[in-house]
Design goal:
Rossmann fold, alpha/beta, 145 residues, 5-stranded parallel sheet, 17% strand, disordered C terminus, disordered N terminus
């Protein structure tokens, strides 16, 4: 097993407004001992959590499209304690060409369109076990790209 996944610093933020989806993903990730899970039901709550806590991966819903993309842009710009290049899995109801291009520019690891299976999210996070994840940044300075 990858020791990083079991280190006290490895954590995932699940930012999803749907309580059932959010809690199910968090529950399965915890049950499989993939990582410590933080949950946020909205972009403002997720932003606050990211400002206070370094995470190693992000599952981000685009339910609030503009705010979520702004959050991801800020993450990639190094405005949070987490490293700017952490893996990001995006959950979206649809994806057109401009959105796909934007997600590619923001280096999204995987896009899952609704309806998706919880298993797809978990399998994506499990696949991260096979490759080293960026460690959460230490200290209070933002990560640089």
């Amino acid at each position: 097993m990858n020791p990083l996944l079991h280190s006290p610093t490895h954590s995932i933020l699940v930012l999803e407004p749907d309580a059932v989806v959010r809690s199910t993903v968090a529950s399965v990730v915890r049950e499989l001992d993939l990582a410590q899970v933080h949950q946020a039901a909205s972009v403002p709550l997720g932003t606050q959590l990211l400002a206070e806590t370094a995470v190693n991966a992000l599952v981000l819903s685009l339910a609030d499209n503009d705010a979520a993309l702004d959050l991801l842009t800020r993450l990639r710009a190094g405005e949070f304690p987490s490293k700017a290049d952490i893996p990001v899995v995006v959950l979206a109801p649809a994806c057109d060409g401009p959105l796909a291009l934007r997600l590619k520019q923001l280096e999204v690891l995987r896009l899952l369109l609704t309806p998706f299976k919880i298993r797809d999210v978990v399998q994506t996070l499990e696949a991260l076990k096979a490759e080293p994840l960026p460690e959460a940044a230490s200290g209070s300075s933002p990560a640089q790209t």
